[in-house]
Amino acid sequence: MPTPSEPGRTGTTRQASVAHPRSGLGIAALVLGIVAIVASGTMIGGIVLGIIAVILGVLARSRTMKGQATRGGVALAGIITGASAWW
Predict the structure, then answer these.
(1) What is the spatial distance between Cα 9 and Cα 64, in angstroms, rounded to a whole number?
(2) Residuewise pLDDT in 10s, the chain (87 residues)
(3) pTM summary value
């Protein structure tokens, strides 16, 4: 039932849209790191994909520290798997 001060209002409330922190870079770093380990026998797999995974992981980790992203552990795992593909 509408209150006199709010004509036409039926009691439903609007929820404010909240921007959720992103974690896409961390996930991309982890996926690339895993692919780099699997393909570490080739030049492109081990070195190039590993370097890209480390770079994306560092970027994601810095966003996590600033509070702009979540899942810092995933970013760290991307750094570790990307670096381990080099050896």
Answers:
(1) 41
(2) 555 555 665 655 566 556 677 889 999 999 999 999 998 888 767 889 999 999 999 999 999 999 988 889 999 999 999 999 987
(3) 0.73
